[in-house]
Structures are given as C-alpha cells and as structure tokens.
UniProtKB/TrEMBL annotation:
Annotated signal peptide: none
Residues annotated as transmembrane: 20-45, 57-78, 85-102, 114-136, 143-167, 173-191, 217-241, 247-269, 281-299, 305-324, 345-365, 371-388
Residue ranges annotated for the Major facilitator superfamily (MFS) profile domain, each copy included: 19-393
UniProt protein name: MFS transporter
Subcellular location: Cell membrane
Keyword Plastid tagged: no
Membrane topology summary: Multi-pass membrane protein
Entries under InterPro entries matching the protein: MFS (IPR011701), MFS_dom (IPR020846), MFS_trans_sf (IPR036259), Tet-R_TetA/multi-R_MdtG-like (IPR001958), YfmO-like (IPR053200)
Assigned keywords, A-Z: Membrane, Transmembrane, Transmembrane helix
Main subcellular location of this protein, as a coarse class: membrane
UniProt superkingdom: Bacteria
Amino acid sequence: MTAHASHETSASILKQPKAVWAVAFACVIAFMGIGLVDPILPAIAESLQATPTETEMLFTSYLLITGLAMLGTSWLSSRIGAKKTLLIGLALIIVFAAAAGLSQNVEEVIGFRAGWGLGNALFISTALATIVGAAAGGTGSAIILYEAALGLGIAVGPLLGGLLGHVSWRGPFFGTAALMAVGFIAIVVFLKDERDASARPEPTRLSAPIRALRQPALAVLAAAALFYNIGFFVLLAYSPFPLGFDALGLGFTFFGWGLALAITSVFVAPLLTARMPRTRVLWIALPLLSLDLVAAGLFIEDPTALVVCIVVGGLVLGVLNTVLTECVMEATDLQRSVASSAYSAVRFLGGALAPPAAAELAHLISPSAPYYAAAGSVLIAALVVVAGHRALRRVDRVEHGAGASEREAEAITVGDAA
C-alpha cells in the first residue's frame, strides 16, 4: 500500500456514516462480553456459595448456546434482514444481562448467560456484513474499523468487569445491559431498514452448516479448533482461581491478555501468513501454546509468572484465532457464512466443555492438572492439522488485494466470538 493510499484509508475510516459508528459501538460492547465475567468468577463463587465447577458453567452455558445458535443465524438473517437480526440479538443481551445481575443463585446466572449467548450469536454473526455494507471508503476501511472494535472489546471487557466487579459482582452485568441499551437505540435511530429485498443475501437452508462438515478440509479444521479451544478457555476461564487476585487485579491481568490477543490477531498474524503458508504458522503456533500451558502448570504457585504465561498465551492465541479461521474461509467453495457457522458450532463445544472440566481436574488431581490437560489437547489439535495437511492444501494459496482482506476479517469475526 502506498503512502497516499494509506493516508486516504486512514481518513476514510474516520469519515463514516452514523450507522457504521452505531454498529461499531455495539460491536465493542458485544465482544466485551467474552471476558467480562472472568474477573468476577471467584466473587460469584463466594457470594452465591457456588463451587468452582458451578461457577465455570457461566462460560459453558454461554458458549454452548452461542455455538448451537450459530447454526441458524445465517438462515434467520437471510430472511428477516440484518437490522432486525441485530436488534433481536441486542434485545436478548440486554434482557438476559440485566436478569443475570438480579439473580439470587448461581443456577439463575447460568441460565441467563445461556440467553445472553443466544443474543450474542445473532448479533455478532450479522455485524460485519452490516458494517461493510454501510461503510464509506470501501471494504478495506470497513474491515479496519471492525477489527478495531473487535480488539477494543476483547481488551476492555475484562478490565471493565474488574472495575465494576470490584464494587459488586452484579456490576458488570448491569453495566453491559446499560451499554447495550445505548447501542440498541443507536442502531434503531441510525441504521436504515432494508426496504429492498434484493439487498438481502440469498436465503440459506437451515441444514447447510451441518452438511458443510462433510467437506474434508472443514472437518479437519473444525476438529483441530475443538481441541485448541479447550486450551483457550482453560487459560481464560480457569486461571482466575489459581491466581487468587481480587476482581480489580484479575481485570488488569486479563486486560493485558486481551490486548496481547488483539495486537497479534490484527497485526502479527497477517505478517506471518504473508511470509509462510498458513498451515506452517499453525504447526509452529500450536506447540508454542502447548508449551505456554505447561509453563503455567509448572509456575502455578508464582502469581507473577502465571500472569506472564497468561499474557504470552494471549499473544499466541491472537495468531491462532486469525489463522485458523482464515483457513476456514479459504478451505472450500461454500458460502462463507455457512462455513463459519459450521466451524464455530464445533469449536464452541470445546470452549463449553473446558471450564467445568478444568475445575473438576483441579479438585480431583491438582491445581496444575487443568493446564497440563489443556497442553495435551492443544498438541492433539496440532496433530490433527499435520495429519490433515493434504485436505488443507488449498488454504496455503497466497492471495492479495481487497478480497483477501475481506476474507481475513470475516474469519476473525467468528473465530473471536467465543
């Protein structure tokens, strides 16, 4: 990109219609929900007299419903339009986040987090297409803006959760509901309705994502992502317990984790894939993540060392999120929304199973056991990628231009929605 083109792109990013800013703001809040509850897990366990396993179910219910709902979001949005899908998703998040804040026991919070996951699936699966369609300055500017919203949400979520959770564990839930209400109003006011039916995507079949997993390349990537995501969520969801920090300390720790993930996801991963095949990046990054998890297990009694492992893990996770889901976009000729839905549904199963399983391993064996098990799971993901390299030949083709950038951003969207 020339200096002149770069200057034009930077300028166009800031000169966007109000509708784009409204959706981008809501995106930041939606992605904050990923790590928002992380700093308050110990506080919830103490206040509601819940076991660590019960508390980890807050992640399980959220991710399980998000993954299952992803199978139907493209079917719904292709029939009722993007704006209605966005608003339904936001409304569900507002209602269930507020209800979680009013809960009197951990079972209620778990149930309301499931409803939150449904709303999040509807919103995040539609947001990128909406921004690209409404943005000024071309697809490139829209994608940069979306990536900025994504990174900001992932980084700020744990920090806001820690700050509000320092006052009360209910604070992050009410804060999310209030911010999402602002986003809801902004989208109602500034985003136009799709009055022309031709502007909507072609309706997709409800069974399309399930049928997509018959494709060998997509099946390999989904299986690898399932085992990789176990490592991801052991690091994110289990680590607050051995760290032993208060909500504010956990908030700052996972702010560092989210910031590291966002930086490598947006900037480092594209540099790596421009210099080597995507599968080679996976062969290198997955074992590195496994080693980081082993280190976390070894240094679990040293809070400083464990914080370093968490932040370093964020750096590796950012690369893996982007490259894995880039591969999904390039692996088949399937419609991208269908491929993403199929991949995400399988991937989120790993995320849903990991947190309570980690808590049980810690209780039955030792506090370090979840990290070692997660390291083994990530190694299995690496072996799946190596064993399936023939099916993944297509993902190593080098692409240039706006089309490649658009596919990269779509991949990041669904990959980081967990």
